[in-house]
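name: query_chain
kind: protein
chains: 1
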Amino acid sequence: VAGLLVLGLVGCSSKKGPELFFASGYVADQGINRLWREDSAQHEPQTILNVYSPYYGGDTIITRYEFQQGQLHLIKETHATKTDLGVMLRFDEGGNVSFMQRQLPERREKLSSDEIERYKYEASKILDLSNALRAGNVRLVQARWRKGLITTCAGEQVTPALTGRAQVWLAKRASRSNDNLGLAWLTAPQGNELLLVANEDFCKWEPKESDL
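structure:
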């Protein structure tokens, strides 16, 4: 994970304790990351789902991180449309690789030691950043836009306070749409930040706590 920009939204929070299910996100150097995290009853990380959407071209990449007793156990990377591509890494209790595989269109291959270390590094960074976002109460909201009305995936009609630049962005996309858009934004004590506007219904696939 390179060039992370948390948009200046991370701050202090007076929450009583960390939630077991939390959705957030951040801006990377070339795209948007949306995170869904579930912790165990002991407040240890259990699952983190990272959905990376590049700004220009490229496929959306979904990476699932699973932990056992707070230790990294599984990394599974898939592509939204290129189903013949992907990576899976499984680790034992000592943190050693017990299974590795890269799926290519016509074959499977092992990962190099450098690639394994890169995936482990990214997992560590994602976990650290997820901790920081949750501590700062930086929350992800996804919604549907239809004829000027915004309805969250939870069914609540809202009017998020967006910057002038974000409103112009939304207006431009709305003028070229068929009256249906998907929105994703971050909300925090310091303000809101629009992440994505797309001709896609994010609510159709948004993970729920039971999904993780």
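note: Residues 103 and 157 are 42 Å apart (CA to CA).
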